[in-house]
Amino acid sequence: MKLKILVTGPYASGKTTFIQSISEIDVVRTEENVTSAWELEEKNHTTVAMDYGRITIDEDTVLYLFGTPGQLRFDFMWEILCRGALGVVVLVDSAKGERIKEARPIIDFFYSRLNVPYVVAANKQDLPGAWPPEYVKTVLDLDDSVEVLPCVATDRESVKRVLLRLLEHIMEHLK
Amino acid sequence: MVKGNLKDFHPIEVLQLLRENKETGILLVESRNLYIGMYFVDGMVAYAFKSDKVSDLFTKKFIDEFVTAVKVRDKERFANLLSKVKASISEFMKSKEGTFSFEKANFFIDDGIKEYLMSTERLIVAESRHVDDEAVLERKISSPEMVFQKVKNVKEILSKVQLEADEYRVLDAINGRRTVAEIVEFTGLPELRVKQILYGFLCAGLIKRAPRRIWLADILSLGLIKKLINRIRGL
Ligand SMILES: Nc1nc2c(ncn2[C@@H]2O[C@H](COP(=O)(O)OP(=O)(O)O)[C@@H](O)[C@H]2O)c(=O)[nH]1
Ligand SMILES: [Mg+2]
Question: What pLDDT is stored for residue A69 in this prediction?
């Protein structure tokens, strides 16, 4: 069985780094032919780069982490990407307070159209002056059910904690 | 310490950060050649001053002045100070450029003085009426599809602010289901005014985004999630 978790966020928020820290393979960069969504775009500007990593769960279960840019050309792309996804990690660069709001279009879209669980990772907490997760939550005006976690995407343990919290939230909805 | 630029955060948004997180500490604003210092206690404004000398920021004399005036219950002295405080706050609210930084500090403020703290909620709601830059409003009211609900302790916050008739109309329209676009339609108020009001309400903590409904992928089962959790724990 193939499972997937999406890792999204604005440019340079740390998506590739996050996936690389936990993936058992080198992150695969795909520039084309990812899903049928891309074929719907005009062929000459189809570069929505997607990265993916893999975690083997057991003999017949594999978890894929898909890194996808926050700014997608069309909203329907989100719907296609999220179809069948367990959940989403939204990364923000918390070392640059002014860039936190760049995650807003993604979040707004989730609120109005998408119903998969997500967590927000306040990434780059190792950098001096990083905004704390609570501030990230305020800047994005998240409701109390959305958890904002501190994150250092270069640190595997930190990435594990974020993924585990996402899975725990999903588990709560299954109970 | 958290730093930012007033180009990216309106003063009201800075107040929202400190109010929402019930911060105690000092906000320093450097705007042109003016320094504004604001002391916060549990997210409320305790004191504010302005000076063109950066050295003034490192003295305790400002807050001591305030504490003394309250302690000795000298009404005249207090009123005089209060007008200085208000002038400094309004200078901050007008600042469109410059930088801000906030540093947590542990002030010892006894309960007698807590009565004199200013309501950040009230300040935010009053100031939001002057925000007409659409780019600023859309930073918070970022989609016409946003849905808000009143916070649980809305009554308590209402007791700290003074709303106008328009604002009550918008508040009444917020029910956890109507979108921003629907609130505009329902109230019949101009869109800009509705956004302004929602911006103020959101920053003042009267309303929040309504939580989403969650639908899980069909393939999910408790057993599968547990398997994933165990595997990731063991990595
Ligand atoms: N200090 C620090 N740097 C990070 C962290 N995560 C990512 N970076 C750096 O941020 C930059 C952008 O990261 P990348 O993963 O390419 O971002 P993407 O565009 O979202 O895929 C790179 O230089 C990373 O090394 C982190 O947690 N801490
Ligand atoms: Mg990348």
Answer: 83
Q: Which residue has the tokens 């730093």?
A: B3
Q: Which domain holds residue A109?
A: 2-174
- CATH number of the domain at A126, please: 3.40.50.300
Q: How many Å lie between the alpha carbon of A33 and the closest alpha carbon of chain B?
A: 24
State mean pLDDT over A134-158: 97
Backbone angles phi, psi at B221, to 5 degrees: -140, 160
Does residue A32 surpass a pLDDT of 50? no
| Cα–Cα distance for residue pair B83/B48, rounded to 1 Å | 10
Computed over every residue of chain A, the mean pLDDT equals 88
Could you give the 3-state DSSP secondary structure of residue B35?
strand
Which stretches of chain A are assigned E, i.e. beta strand? 2-9, 28-30, 50-58, 61-69, 85-93, 118-123, 148-150
What pTM did the predictor assign? 0.92
Instruction: Tell me: pLDDT of B116 over 80.
Output: no
Pick from A22, A135, A168: which is nearest to B2 by CB?
Answer: A135
What pLDDT score does A27 carry? 83
Residue of A nearest to B221 (CA): A174
Confidence (pLDDT) at A38? 43
Mean per-residue pLDDT of chain B: 91
User: Residue A37 in contact with residue A76, Cβ under 8 Å?
Assistant: yes
CB B195 within 8 A of CB B146: no
Q: Are B214 and A116 in contact (CB under 8 A)?
A: yes
3-state secondary structure of A47: coil
Task: State whether A141 and B226 contact (CB < 8 Å).
Answer: no
Q: Test B3 with A141 for CB contact under 8 angstroms.
A: no
Contact flag B235-A110 (C-beta cutoff 8 Å): no
Least CB–CB distance from A98: residue in B5, B225, B229: B5
The predicted structure's pLDDT at residue A44: 41
pLDDT band at B162 (very low <50, low <70, confident <90, very high): very high
| Nearest C-alpha in A relative to B177 | A112
From chain B, pick out residues whose CB is under 8 angstroms from the CB of A86: 216-217, 220, 228
The ipTM value here is: 0.93
What domains are defined for chain B? 2-118 (no CATH), 143-209 (1.10.10)
